[in-house]
Amino acid sequence: MLHNSEYQSAWVRLAIWSFSVGYIGLGAWTDYYVVDVGQYYLFFGFFILLFLGLLISIYYVPEMPARRYVTVVSDIVAVSLAIFLTNEAISPFYLLYIWIFVSYGTRYGKRLLKVASILSVFAYNVVLIVLDEWQQHTFEAFFFLLLLVVLPMYQYSLLRKLHEARQEAEQANKARGDFLATMTHELRTPLIGVIGMSRLMQSTRLDSEQQEYLHSIKASAQLLRALIGDILDFSKIDANKLELESSAFEIRELLRGVTSTLATEAQEKQVELICQVDARLPRELLGDELRLSQILFNLLGNAIKFTDEGEVVLRVLLAPADDKVTVPHVRLEVEDTGIGIPAEKLENIFEMFWQADVSTSRRFGGTGLGTTVARDLARLMGGDIGVRSRLGEGTCFWVKLPLLPKDGSKSGVKPPVLSGRRCLLFEANDTGRSVYSEVVTALGMEVTAVSSVDSLAQMPKRAWELILLCDSVNGIDPEIVLNQLDEHVTGQPPVLFAGYRGRRVDLPARATPALLKPFLVDQLAQAAVRALRGESANGEDDAAFPKRGGRRAEDSGVNILLAEDNSIAAKVLTTLLVQKGHRVIHAIDGREALEAATSDEFHLAFIDLRMPHLDGFDFTRLYREQEPEGLHMPILALTANAAEDVIEQCHEAGMDGFINKPVEPEQLDLVISRYVQTQEYE
Questions:
Q1: Cα 670 from chain centroid?
Q2: Model confidence at 642, in pLDDT bands (50, 70, 90)?
Q3: pTM for the full model?
Q4: How confident is the model at residue 321 (pLDDT cuts 50, 70, 90)?
Q5: Architecture category of domain 559-681 in CATH
Q6: CA–CA dist 323, 338 (Å, integer)
Q7: What is the pLDDT of residues 386-413, one digit of tens each?
Q8: Whole-angstrom Cα distance, residue 248 to residue 514?
Q9: CATH class of 416-544
């Protein structure tokens, strides 16, 4: 409301007329003005009430363009009557005419400037005639009336020049934004090939020198990908092309998706990634899911990049209203143990293309746009962002967002089977041990948390009902740890192993690889319930733990249609899918894909959006029209541009979802397990 121009004008109007009451009253009391007391009270009483009514109207109905014409008429009539009340046409109140047309022209544009100036000339001329000023002060009357004609004309010319300059600037910004968007999109196509091929090469036999070269290629490609993404996001924000959506989404699923995507990067640097979620947080929130993901990716990505050892912690908390966000809101904190930021440079951290110093940019790379994009998105969503840091100790970025809970959404249900169960938690990281203890406790279980086997030496032998064994970034030997734990445990309770995606582990038969770090309460609840019931605790995360000498869990043989006109991108994705045991039919364009889809049966289709002859949207529409009744083939868009309008077009065409290029192997696992019931085809 404070940014509403009518609201601001209403308060200025009341302030001026309150001053006028005192000014004319003092003039009458000192006999400077000869004022009719009855007219004085009637005049100011009426207009003060009118102006208060306008203020109230603005408060309850902020946007009403017709009200501006009512206010300009009332302002000019009030000024004219004030001059008439003082019986002096050449008075300070004359200046209010100028204030009126300058104010209306500046705030609302040329149309209101014309209305205000014409009404001012007409009203002041009436005052001059009624007070007989044309006879007594002809020269002065003519001069003051001429000013009311000339000044608006001059302001009109200035506004026109300002409007033209603004249009030129907007066109230049649009051209720049379109250029950046087009170029970044085109740059992504060959980059996708570089990243994909480097991943495939990594799975082949390489000596140590070749592995080092490949690591450099991957790191450079990922850095270039991040730079392109930052530039594209910034160009959209700068061009005011971002439109926020408000829909219900599961916050914990979003957090899981973000953290699982970044977990591999953290693991490669031997940095522990931890996610702590307030147990009171509702399952579903209302807001822009995509923009929240972008904020988290930017802040978490930066935290991992600038942290060489230790941990990065994401906290998601419920917070009460404060002076920055005036409603109960969600507070996000991304805290790391990285290099930190000097106190004198904190105020510049959100400026575009800014980093703490040149050596930081050279060492870690980046444009300095990530925090700028996060700030702009947070403010667009009605929130706030800030940072605190200590040099050499780490940094904490916080974001406040007014994400409202969906009606009827609850924080979650504790499975009754877990209530009161005794759980032994093994976690070497202090912060992780504290967070995962909270997760276990939130499920109603009793937890004993240890960081090493030696910690149990002072405790009596006890019958725990569940052991939660967590891997560390430096790696542990699960079999050795379990053998040591057994010396302090009565019986052989089920063991849940929480590890890292892609890390090869040798697990004893009784240990189930059920969780990926960082895990949340929902994943632990599902795995723990199955384990305590004597069922297989393996979830969709099991596929992420490669076993030595074992068959991969995803080798279930799913028929997949791939439509991709770029041969390199197609080869990368085909190879990844075949390595996972799936059967792939590749079509080079939409027309060929449609022929394949209508002549054979597929369990899933990956369709590129930009193809010759028939693009992904038209393919989907045509296929859905011909799809046999009772059957539904999930169609996922392959795109490097996950903008809102593109996603909306995908849904309108009949697609089930989308997957970003370059495709991560982990994404394929999650997508296939989500959209395809693989056990039906084994």
A1: 22
A2: low
A3: 0.60
A4: confident
A5: 3-Layer(aba) Sandwich (3.40)
A6: 30
A7: 999 988 889 999 999 998 887 766 666 6
A8: 28
A9: alpha beta
With beta carbons less than 8 A apart as the criterion, state whether 602 and 561 touch. Answer: yes
Amino acid at 590: G
CB of 214 closer than 8 Å to CB of 201: yes
Q: How many CB atoms lie within 10 A of CB 46?
A: 12
**Beta partners for 470?**
498
pLDDT tens-place string over residues 526-557: 888 888 887 655 554 554 555 443 334 344 57
Determine what percent of the chain falls in helix, strand and coil, rounding each to the nearest 5: 55, 15, 30
Cα 150 from chain centre:
50
| 3-class secondary structure, 217 | helix
Of 540, 587, 580, 539, give the one whose Cα is nearest residue 558: 580
Fold for the domain defined by 247-405 = Heat Shock Protein 90 (3.30.565)
User: Angle at Cα 14 formed by Cα 9 and Cα 15, nearest 5°?
Assistant: 95
Stretch 252-257: mean pLDDT: 87
The number of residues in the chain equals 682
The CA-based dihedral angle spanning residues 609, 192, 571, 600, taken in that order and rounded to the nearest 10 degrees: -20
Q: Outline which parts of the chain fall under CATH 3.40.50.2300.
A: 416-544, 559-681
Do you find a cis peptide bond into 518, omega within 30 degrees of 0? Answer: yes
The conformational region for residue 368 under phi > 0 = left, psi -120 to 50 = alpha, else beta, is left
- What residues contact 287, with CB distance under 8 A and at least 6 apart? 246, 247, 249, 381, 401, 403, 404
Q: CATH 3.30.565.10 residue ranges in the chain?
A: 247-405
Positive/negative CA dihedral, 551, 557, 563, 565 = positive
Burial class (CB in 10 A: 0-12, 13-18, 19+), 458: exposed
For residues 124 and 97, the answer to whether their CB atoms sit within 8 Å is yes
Q: Are 191 and 221 in contact (CB under 8 A)?
A: yes
Q: Output the six-digit token pair for 29.
A: 């009391």
Task: Put the strands of the sheet holding 247-250 in their side by side order.
Answer: 247-250, 284-287, 404-405
Tokens of 1: 């409301």
Distance (Å, rounded) from C-alpha 447 to C-alpha 441?
7
Burial 356-371 (b: 16+ CB within 10 A, else e): beeeeeeeebbbbbbb
Calculate what percentage of the chain has a pLDDT beyond 70: 87
Pairing of strands 635-639, 583-587: unpaired
